[in-house]
Every structure is written in C-alpha cells, then in structure tokens.
From TrEMBL:
Protein name: Aminopeptidase FrvX
Annotated transmembrane regions: none
Originating species: Zobellia uliginosa
CDD domains: M42_Frv
One example GO MF annotation: aminopeptidase activity
Amino acid sequence: MATKKILTKKSLDFFEKYLNNAAPTGYEWEGQKLWMDYLKPYVDTFITDTYGTAVGVINPDAKFKVVIEGHSDEISWYVNYITDNGLLYVIRNGGSDHQIAPSKWVNIHTKNGMVKGVFGWPAIHTRDKGKETPPKLDNIFIDIGAKDKEEVEKMGVHVGCVITYPDEFQILNGDKFVCRAIDNRAGGFMVAEVARLLHENKKKLPFGLYITNAVQEEIGLRGAEMITQTIKPNVAIITDVCHDTTTPMIDKKTQGHTEIGAGPVISYAPAVQNKLRERILETAEANKIPFQRMAASRATGTDTDAFAYSNGGVASALISLPLRYMHTTVEMVHKDDVENVIRLIYETLLNIKDGETFSYFD
Ligand SMILES: [Zn+2]
C-alpha cells in the first residue's frame, strides 16, 4: 500500500469538478451535493444539518464514533456598498486577501445566476510614484460594466450578494495542483478518498466512521462547532492546509519550516490529544509515510479546536496538507502530499481500536 498510487483518473476528475464549483462560506450546498454524489458508493448513509454540513457514515449503529474531517467552504466577498456611478465596495466573507484583488475577474452570485465583474485599479500612469497606495479593503472596488446604481440593481446585484473568483484547477509540471479554494476542498476530497480506499480494499472498521465536510470554517470553525454536537464523536482526525514557508518573504523563525512535497504535517498544540497524535506518528513511521512537524501556540485555528473542545473533550488531531500562497487564487499543493495525507489517515484508522479512550491515566 505504501508505494501504490492512490489517485485515479476518476478521483482526479471529481477533484477538478469539486474545485471548479464555487462554495462560498454560507453557500456550500451545491459543492456538498457533488461531494455526497462521489462519496455515496462508499458509505452506508448520510447526515446533513441545517447550515449545510454533510457527513457520510460507515457503520451508523456503532457506539464508538470516529470523525475524519475537512471543510467545504471557500473564502469570498460580500457586496457591501454600491456607489451612485455603479461601482461595488466589498467586505470579507472569510480571510479574503485585499492585496491580490486588483485586476482579478470575479463572479457575483445572484438569484438569476452569475454576473461577471472585475476588480478595477488606477493605471500606473495616473498614480503618484512617490507614494504608492497599496490595495486595502476600503479602496478596492468591482466594476460590473454598469453605468449607475440603477443599472447594477437591474442586473440583479444587491448588497449581500457573495463574490468568488472564477479561477479553475490546473496542474503545473505534472505534480503540482493549482487552484483557488484548495483550502480546503482538498480536505473534503482526501477524506472521501479514504472512504473509497476502505471500500475498495474491503476493510471493515470496528467503529462508526463519520466522513465529515463541515461548512463555515473560514469565519471561525462554525460548521464544525455545530456538527460535533450532532455526532458526539469519541475521536476526530481533522485535515486542513498549512503554509509552505519556503517561498519568499516568509520568516521561518516565526512561521516554522514546512514545505510542499515533504509529506503531511502533524501538529503539536494544546487542542491536539497527545496519545492520538503519537498513534498517527507511529503509523507514519510503520508505513514509511514521510511527515513534517508543526507547532501552534494556543489555537490551531482549524476545526481541530472545535472538535477538541466539545462534548466534554474529544480526542482530536490535525494532519495538514502543506500549501503555497494560501487564500490567493493560485493555491498550490504537491500531488505526493495529497496521496500521503490520504494514506496516513487511512492507515491510522486501521490502527484505532473500538472503545479506545486515549486516556493519559490508563
Ligand atoms: Zn482558509
């Protein structure tokens, strides 16, 4: 299993389709439907909740419950203010990056479908070279080709419409996946691949497995906070992205050293249950899966925190996929890392026994 390739043509086709579909925070359901369609042959049943979190369940009657989780939402913008001459000012829905906005195409989601627009920017000729103004939330604006506010409204665009980038999946140099929203479409994809492998390799787990695709992570782990109360799991293994810190202008002394192509990144943080993390590390070593380490002070900033600090404490751990250029439209990951995260979650599940408490006192 350690050397066998995991991703198939079919799984990559799904990943591409799943990435190319927009699923802004709060509006995840079309993406969830694609994900559930793909996952369906590999699970016994589904749970969905009011805000759109989706969970594929294997062994739904088992008392002991293990979650593997990624998040389904992507960062976006909201239309916040429309000027009399028909330009749109925005606020963030998640950690959208004002610095990359100028000159980007956008899709504005309306009741009648997508309206195209562009983030405009003053021409280099017209700017004061002595004091360049960087893009900020209060000076970036969208032009949808409308002459005034009335025309904007006629186009179906109003305050509260969400805005995403149209950038689609590409492969660079054969093994780098590039797209917007790989944070954290990759997570949902990887946990679904774990379910596929369990099914194809006819592995029977002694516990209930809850393959979870949570909503609303980007605005504060909200989907995970909701679904952990519904599932009430005993164990949660979370996967999200983390930074490749080897590209320019990132300080390794504060950000640590993690990079794409060097394997899954295992987190050390108070929310990470030590015995569960050690089980993951032992599994990586036993199966010759490369890995890297990362430390977080206080919170991990991922859904790990939401699962860990729920239901009286849930043994939780975080396996991250290293990624370049987070929250830009050209997020980049290494194919080998995607496969190794899948492999590590899969092998770890095979190493968890029914009823394990991971107690420090046994
Ligand atoms: Zn993010």
